[in-house]
Amino acid sequence: MDLNEINPDLIARYKYILKKRMSDRQKKKFIVSLIKDLSIKRDDIHVIETTYHNSKNAFSRNIYVGDVESAEWIIATYYDTYAAHLGSFTFNNISQQKKNTLLFNLISSLLLMVIGIIFTMYITVPFIDKAIENSNWLLIGFIVVFYIIISWAIGEVAKGIASRHTWIRNSATVVFLINEILNQSENKRIAYAYVDNGTTNEQGLESLLNSVNKNSKILYLDSIGAKANLTVSKDNNISPLKKSTVFSAGINKIYPGQYGKLSIKDLHSKEIYSKNFVVVQEILDKVNIEG
User: Fold this and answer.
1) Are 192 and 63 in contact (CB under 8 A)?
2) Which of 31, 102, 130, 212 has its CA 20 to 30 A from that of 204?
3) In angstroms, rounded to a whole number, what is the distance separating the alpha carbons of residues 222 and 253?
4) Mind listing the pLDDT tens digit for each residue in 130-163?
């Protein structure tokens, strides 16, 4: 698949305009846009919200196209985007990813605190008394605004900073799947899913798995635009992805690289590896024809 084969408006929308999908507000904007794009061809689009552990703050919003409960095949990917982190990204290692993200947040918070300390030592302490004595409201206001901004920034960093490098992980896959849905005839045996929390705890994928029948085959696409040959992982069995690959019931994760790792350079790339999309497209065409 070449990028020239996809509507450039789709690429612009999800590569640039809606490239960050980490906060609740960002995700809602994405969902509205996705439904609008898919409604051109499909009217069987459903947004399913699932709450976990009786907590209002722990939930996922999945978008389904078709009937995932009865479909034999579910073609899925995640739509949320990741927080900035240190080091490479390893598939199937959520705990390590959390550590890399927390380390980035910690270092960033410490740097902001150091900036606050330096400001206090060289601006606040030497000048605040004189500013109050002389009613220098401009300087007083500047100092107050600085502390408001630095406090806000530390709070935001502690929650995680949305990465702006999301084309490889996972916007290119999102666009590919939109294009697939719009260009395939409706097939009752096949449903599609955009799941939430794919970059964190995979709650959206868990919710999808709980909704399908036990014989359904889920092809879960992850970062397939990265410059590395694709791998399929099922029940800890890993093998190269080929057009002839036989899939079994349950989650079949498809991602790049034999060792399932993407470097910072890979993650920040703006170019996709077209060969991978060709392979996946051939597999999906085969699914549509043969089932």
Assistant:
1) no
2) 102
3) 7
4) 989 888 999 999 999 999 999 999 998 988 999 9
